[in-house]
Write the structure tokens for this entry.
Amino acid sequence: MEPKNVVLYARSATFKKPGDNNSVDMQLEKLREYARKNDYEVLAEFVDEGKGGNIEDRPALQKMISIVTAEPHIVDTVLVNDYSRLARNMKITRDLEERLRENNVSLVSISQPRDDSFEKIFQVIWTRILLRE
């Protein structure tokens, strides 16, 4: 079985000292360890430091999205430490997840595992909420 091809994404709204639990250095360290333990092949690492999670226009995030959605598809999964590192805005998170899903790329939070059945229920609820806005 071939190893799963993954990319790592880390973000911090502020420039934190190395060793701080949410510093990009610590996030990347945890992501690399998770990838190693699961025999994943890390193709690239993307870091947005000093960038808030309520905006989608972050340089590393945009570069990552363009790479993982490009043909031919070589990335299987995007790994994040937790979903808030991807975005702090639920609509941005859902939009990004949908773009990944359309390209057969999964999103995995190493600290917040998801149950697919719960995810499907959540998507239905969230879609209904968005339709009311």
Residues 5-132 form a domain with the Rossmann fold fold (CATH 3.40.50.1390).
